[in-house]
């Protein structure tokens, strides 16, 4: 089961581990196809298509699968109450994490600060 986005889907904890090992910069949105998550997926898809962020791998993971524990149980996500959980990873380390809907400006600020080339 995967989300209906054009992003790369992470389905297993192994997929997640492989992704952060193979990519220096990763943005993962862990959520559902709901009103708080869909706008974040759309922004990620637009950023990926823009070509300006070829140094970042944009991915998603379905929140409701058991394997999503790799994101749900991160210390950086411990206090989160709203979906999606979005994590930003550089060189295998979480450098930022957000919860709930984010707009383009909020995402761009994080990408430019934490996942620059």
Question: How many separate domains make up the residues?
Answer: 1
CATH class: Alpha Beta
Oligomeric state, counting identical vs distinct chains: single chain
Span between termini: 33 Å
CATH topology, anyone? Glutaredoxin
Extended strand count:
5
Poorly predicted spans? none
Global Rg: 13 Å
| Number of helices, counting only DSSP H or I runs of 4 residues or more | 4
Which key terms come to mind for this protein?
single chain; 117 residues; alpha/beta; Glutaredoxin; five-stranded mixed sheet; 5 strands; 25% strand
Structural write-up:
The protein has 117 residues and is α/β, with parallel strands linked by helices. The chain has one domain: 3-Layer(aba) Sandwich (Glutaredoxin). The chain is built from 4 helices and 5 strands; from the N terminus they run βαβαβαββα. The chain has a 5-stranded mixed beta sheet, sandwiched between helices. Strand 2, helix 2 and strand 3 form a beta-alpha-beta unit. The protein is globular and about 35 Å long.
């Amino acid at each position: 089961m995967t989300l209906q986005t054009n992003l790369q889907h992470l389905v297993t904890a192994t997929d997640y581990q492989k992704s952060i090992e193979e990519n220096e910069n990763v943005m993962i949105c862990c959520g559902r196809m709901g009103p708080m998550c869909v706008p974040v997926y759309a922004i990620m898809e637009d950023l990926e298509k823009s070509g300006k962020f070829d140094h970042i791998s944009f991915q998603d993971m379905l929140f409701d699968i058991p394997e999503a524990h790799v994101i749900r149980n991160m210390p950086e996500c411990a206090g989160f109450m709203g979906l999606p959980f979005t994590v930003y990873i550089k060189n295998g380390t979480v450098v930022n994490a957000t919860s709930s809907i984010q707009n383009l400006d909020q995402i761009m600020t994080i990408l430019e600060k934490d996942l620059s080339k």
